[in-house]
Specification:
By secondary structure, this protein is an alpha+beta fold. The chain is built from four helices and twelve strands, in the order H-H-H-E-E-E-E-E-E-E-H-E-E-E-E-E. The longest helix has about 80 residues.
Length: about 280
């Protein structure tokens, strides 16, 4: 026959029994202190090391939890700082771009004051044909803005090109360094006539040529080269560049000079377009 102990032993009797045992153990520990000493010592020798080990494990676990919490906090702080740095870098980039644009506008304003006799409009370069050099490029102003074919184009320090084609809202500019560019110019203190020819090959060394200069022109290094009044497409007095080297031609009648352009043709962003054009003379 199977006995159901749970049913036979009521919980209150179990509690009463355990209570009696505890009371007896207390009495024995009081009145039999010396007799139970070996038992207590044996129990202590077992329990104390266990307790010490448990405490050390607890402290180790607590330290690891603190370290884990610290590492987690550091990772979160690191990510927050990275996010802040990214935002600040973006702000700095925008500010630098705005400062650059402001400086470009100031340069154009100063350039505008250099040629007060001409009407002008500001434009921005949005495309370039030749990689590495701004020999042919496009600006965001066109016929709707009064920009027509043969309008001269300036940037920063002087002349950079001429409008070859104009459309409703944009125009194509041929730079003075382009291989197909030729300008009737004046050079030196006497304003001697010459022909400034563009060349992308020589621009790799930083210069273009001024040719057919009279041998008695008396030019020297550093002399300014400007557009001539007799040019058929370019307005008078626009700075092209400066003389850096002079040599006599083999015919002993003329000289050739290397000209450093006034503008850096590797990076052009904003320009001034002179809306006045050279009047064509008909015969």
């Amino acid at each position: 026959m199977k006995i159901d102990y749970k049913k036979d032993l009521h919980p209150k009797y179990l509690l009463l029994t355990l209570s009696v045992i505890c009371v007896i153990l207390i009495i024995l520990s009081v009145f039999m202190k010396n007799s139970l000493a070996p038992i207590r010592n044996a129990a202590s020798s077992i329990i104390n090391p266990l307790q010490k080990g448990v405490n050390e494990i607890g402290l180790w676990v607590e330290d690891k939890l603190e370290i884990f919490g610290s590492v987690k906090d550091l990772k979160e702080e690191n990510q927050r700082l990275k996010d802040e740095l990214k935002v600040n870098e973006e702000k700095l980039a925008r500010n630098e771009a705005e400062l650059t644009e402001l400086q470009d506008l100031r340069d154009l304003y100063n350039l505008d004051k250099m040629y007060p006799e001409y009407n002008k409009i500001a434009a921005r370069v949005f495309s370039v044909n030749v990689s590495g050099w701004f020999a042919e490029f496009y600006i965001d102003k066109g016929l709707n803005d009064g920009v027509y074919e043969d309008c001269n184009v300036l940037s920063d320090s002087g002349l950079i090109g001429i409008v070859e084609e104009s459309y409703a809202d944009h125009a194509k500019v041929r730079a003075i360094i382009d291989d197909h560019s030729k300008i009737t110019a004046e050079i030196g203190p006497k304003g001697s006539l010459c022909t400034v020819e563009g060349s992308l090959k020589t621009m790799d060394d930083g210069y273009i040529y001024a040719k057919n200069i009279d041998k008695n022109a008396g030019i020297k290094e550093g002399d300014r080269v400007i557009t001539s009044s007799v040019s058929d497409r370019y307005l008078y007095g626009l700075t092209i560049g400066y003389v850096t080297e002079i040599k006599d031609d083999t015919n002993n009648l003329t000289k050739t000079a290397k000209i450093t352009p006034a503008e850096n043709f590797t990076d052009i962003k904003d320009v001034l377009v002179i809306t006045d054009r050279k009047k064509k003379v008909s015969y």
